Amino acid sequence: MDAMFDICYLSSDGTTIESDDIPQTKENVWILGKKYSAIQDLDRIRRDISSIIWCTYRKGFVPIGDEGLTSDKGWGCMLRCGQMVLGVALIRIHLSTDWAWSPETRDPTYLKIIQRFEERKQAPYSIHQVALMGACEGKAVGQWFGPNTIAQVLKKLVVYDKWSSLVIHVALDNTVVKEDILAQCIVKNDRGDASDIPDSINVSDWMPLLLIVPLRLGLSEINPVYVEGLKICFQSPQSIGVIGGKPNQALYLIGCVGDEVIYLDPHTTQKSGLVESKSTDEQKEMDCSYHCKYASRIPILAMDPSVAVCFLCRTKSDFEELCINIKTNVMKESQPLFEICEKRPSHWGPSNADIDLQNISMFTDIEDDRQFDDSDEEFEIL
Hints:
This protein is of the alpha+beta class. Helix content is about 25%, strand content about 20%. It is built from 11 helices and 14 strands. The longest helix is centred in the first third of the chain and has 18 residues, at about 75-95.
């Protein structure tokens, strides 16, 4: 099985390709809120990166939409980044922060998570469900998303999947409002039928929170004043990365080292298939296709300025710790990325469950109507 996983990292003459994923540096490496030594922890860094569910373009799936699209190449990279963030959240909630994948992994909970992202219409977070829910945000199937749109789509989808046991809150106007989040996450006794929620989730207390903060950190490029704030976010124990990218490409930014961000790239087109029970060679190979052995790096200032910063708070104490970190570190910057307040600003009006996000989008991406072909280079986040 390890040979099956490694085969993608061989050159044409069969020799192993040396990766430049992690630099040999004395600076700390931060991946999904964890600190590593680039020199002493390289194997552990790669193990943890390969444990992330890697969602990429796929081809040959059941047709989506009126045009009958059978591949998301050229338009689905932001959708795939959203899937990756959600995959990290589900693994941390239902397995653990330190859980590690291997080609031999057949943990039933892991399989239940991976099956949620398969290219099946019935899978809660399949490309079909994400693309079709995007239509509610005014995005036709095959049309590209921005970070704000994918955040709103994920928020809607988790409502229909009780097993995931997750609340998604999308911050409005660069402001995290504690009052709104507490209202969403503190579970009341009259919550209703919770039979589909795993026993490991204490529904009488706190529903795990995926907090997504859409931001624009410049007009056409990142303003350097925001660099330190981004690093603080990557170093937060609650960090599960940033949905963003570089011009023409959406990427899942999982961490940083020095003045570079570390990312997983969805721009690889793989065949569709099912993992199911992972009992056949074909199913095992399909499972391996959801994991990437090496990440990549780009300078922070090479990022596109449209991003969505993501945090996972599995418990109320996690959320309180995050709030303290935001107040004492993020908001102390000369130009804070975002702020946190106890109650909704008066000019916002009442919450009304985020003013019925089932019907309207609270965010408008700075996006245009240009058309794209099926090449990997034609996605642009503006």
